[in-house]
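Sorry to interrupt, but I need a hand with the structure work. Could you add the entry underneath, on a fresh line?
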Amino acid sequence: MVFKPISPKKISSQIAEQIRSSILAGEFSPGDKLPPERELAEMFGVSRPSVREALNMLASSGLVMSYQGGGTVVMSLVEIVAGNPLSDLIKGEQERALDVIEVRKGMEAWTAYYAAQRALPEDLRKLEKLVTEMERNLEGLVPSQDLDASFHVCIAQATHNIVWLHLMQSIFDAMKEFQRGVWRAVYITEEDHRQLFQHHRAVFEAIRERDPERAREAMLTHLTFAEQRSSAYVTRQKE
């Protein structure tokens, strides 16, 4: 029997493996930028060409995409690189956004459930900070749509299931423009904003108190409300 000599892994392969592990561990979310090549080279204690080769490997596998002058961005595991067909569909037929919310009710009821079981102290701190900022926005009726999106993605992150996280991020990216329209046209009064805040606080408190079933029910209550308001928005757009 003839054995082949063992050769150490290329530096670029080792770099790629570490970055891949960080992405799959949820340390980087879809849309996040990786540190610049220069910083990565300093972190790893290697040359920039080695880092560049590692990033090319990751880009070839679809985990990241490099933009000229725009850095390297983490891609979704469930995203289609050539555009976002779901986003285009919603722009053309706003009723499809209601289909997405129906799907979200099924998905997010369970992300809240699992987050209540698995959230780490750091996850709870992030959620609490978002809820606190939402409450602060009530004073001047400042829209909390960005905080809202971050809250839902943060819950997916707290499941520590990378597929939940990437699915949620992709859905929110596709729904971004539609959600802006809903916030501008439907969530207007102080009562609207306060009700949304109370929904988010109820979900957070159930997760913090490690009550999966209550977290699931609170999320369903919130998304049923959002579904009703979004349906009213779509009806208005048709008139």
